[in-house]
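From the thread on structure requests for the teaching lab: each student submitted one protein with a one-line request. Submission from student K.M.:

"Model LTMD1 protein from Tichodroma muraria, tokens only."
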Amino acid sequence: FLDAYDCIRRDSYPDVLRSLALAARSLPEPQPRELLQQLCAQVQGGAQPNLAQLLAVRSLFSGSLLALNRLRVDHVRALSQVLFLTPHLPAFLLRHRLRSHVLEIRHLDRALQHLGLGQLSEEELRAACYLRGLNSTHLGQAECRAWLEQWLRLSCELQASEASLLAHSMVLLSLNYSQP
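Reply posted by the TA:
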């Protein structure tokens, strides 16, 4: 069932990337805009972004056109599907639910960082990855741990106002990660 649900989630990944690339073109500042466009092109081309690339564009995701409360409705719907949230709600409810779920994951990340990944069983490790967008059913425990460590470094670095970047990272970090 996890594979079937992941297929549903992955169906929305191209929409999220397209919406992100489209929104990037509308950004006023040339240097961060170009970095984000390169990041989108890289992921669309099959590459895996690194933490430094994501952190380099973090300022774009709070207060600009890429903040959760400013995204286009179709963009919010696609992100909602990544989190298995129903996309069939009014825009203000979609945004509220998306933000709430992303911030809940961020709180869980902080607790997990404090606890330490070594405390997780293999099943808990896989569930933590799956919750954050990575289908871990076909990955080894070391791959899951490496991905989750990268995710936690990003999540614990971001502020609540950068929740949009965390939501997008569910796609950016998992789309090309060791596909089965």
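TA comment: Residues 1-173 form one domain. The chain has a mean pLDDT of 91.
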